[in-house]
Amino acid sequence: MRRLMVRLLAVSAVAVCAVPLAVVGPAEAATAPDLACGFTQPGPCTETAHFDQIDELNSPAPPGGGCPPFASTDFATFVGIGHGVEHITVNKAQDLWFTTTFTGTMTLTLYLHGTVDSEGDVTSVSDPDPNVSPFTGKVTDWFGVSFNKQNAVVHSTFHFSGANAGGDNLRFHGVSHAAWMPGTDMDGPPNQMFDKLRCS
Questions:
Q1: Which of 26, 99, 147, 164 has its CA 20 to 30 A from that of 156?
Q2: Given a cut of 60, is residue 105 above it in pLDDT?
């Protein structure tokens, strides 16, 4: 049980760091329930839960990818309502598969300042950017983790398309991937990793 928790937390921690502007990691949704399977209940087990909101704080994204300048300087909140599903399966060997999907309507609000804790998580934001009105539009978010004794994979995609009151459009797509292949130290960094963010 302890080994399962350590592995899941290590994989999730890398995932959270992988895509700065995207909603990454198991859905940090306001209404997503805590799942017992794999945490307080060892495998074999399977569990599915539904949620209807997301409420995220995010740090600025790396520059580039055709994104507007504010994307790499401003902190952001992502607040949305829609349909989310998270699912986890743990087998007898303590191998794990976890996925979460959310689709719905989201408002992206940009802030000039944010507070980041020692683990790199944004804990608060302040001072809305007076030059950029909030964007509202459609969001689709997917995250998945799978691992066994030999390897692990963390993958996520995030797509947002919206507009603000000033008539500006914002569309971005993020993809993140990390993999620990056979022979890699599962407690160390992945031997394959990328994240891409594109705006249009």
A1: 164
A2: yes
What pLDDT score was predicted for residue 184?
A: 81
Give the separation between CA 74 and CA 159, rounded to whole angstroms: 19
Q: How confident is the model at residue 31 (pLDDT cuts 50, 70, 90)?
A: low
Residues 90 and 38 sit within 8 Å (Cβ to Cβ): yes
Note the pTM of the prediction, 2 decimals. Answer: 0.79
User: In the chain, how many domains are there?
Assistant: 1
Domain containing 162 equals: 2-199
Average pLDDT over residues 94-100: 93
Cβ atoms of 42 and 72 closer than 8 Å: no
Distance CA 45, CA 50 (A): 17
In the structure encoding, which two tokens stand for residue 118, read together?
């020692």
110 vs 26, more confident = 110
pLDDT at 16 over 70: no
